[in-house]
Amino acid sequence: MLLCVFSDVNNFSFSVSPRDFGAGESGWAGLCFNPSQWSMAAVARSFCKSIDIYDQDIHLRTLRTLWYPSSLIFMNNFYGGSEGSVLAVAEGSQLTVWDLRIKENSGCVHRICGSVGDMVYAVCSSPTGTIAAGGADRTVTVYDPRRSVV
C-alpha cells in the first residue's frame, strides 16, 4: 500500500485563478516553475494565446503569443545575468524564446518557425542552454539559441 502525504512546507501554499476567471477557456495548457526562483511560475493559456507569469499569487506579466502555447520551460540564462529569466515556449508550429528582463517585442528574443501544420507539442532544455522541441512530425529538433542555428 502506498500512502501519500502532502504537507505545506513552512505553512506556505497559494492558488491562482485565471486573470479573466476562465472566461472562454476550459483550463491551462502548460505550467512550469522557475528552478532558480521557486515562487515563480509560468502558465500557458492556449486559447487565449498568452502566458502569465506569477510570483506566488501575484501576477507579474502577460506574454502574448502568436500561436497557441502548449508547453513551456524556464531555462538557464545564456545571455548572462540572473538565471531563470529565459522561457522557451512551444506554440503552434514554432518555438519561441522569451527573456523576461527585456521589454522590446514583449521580451521575445528568438522565433524559430517550423513547417505550417507541424505542431510543436513539447519543449525541454539542457543545462548548457540548448533547447529540444518535438511535435506532430515525430522528430526532435535540438536548437542552440546562442548560435541561432537549428
UniProtKB/TrEMBL annotation:
SUPFAM superfamilies: WD40 repeat-like (SSF50978). It comes from the Eukaryota. InterPro entries: WD40/YVTN_repeat-like_dom_sf, WD40_repeat_dom_sf. This is DH200=94 genomic scaffold, scaffold_7006.
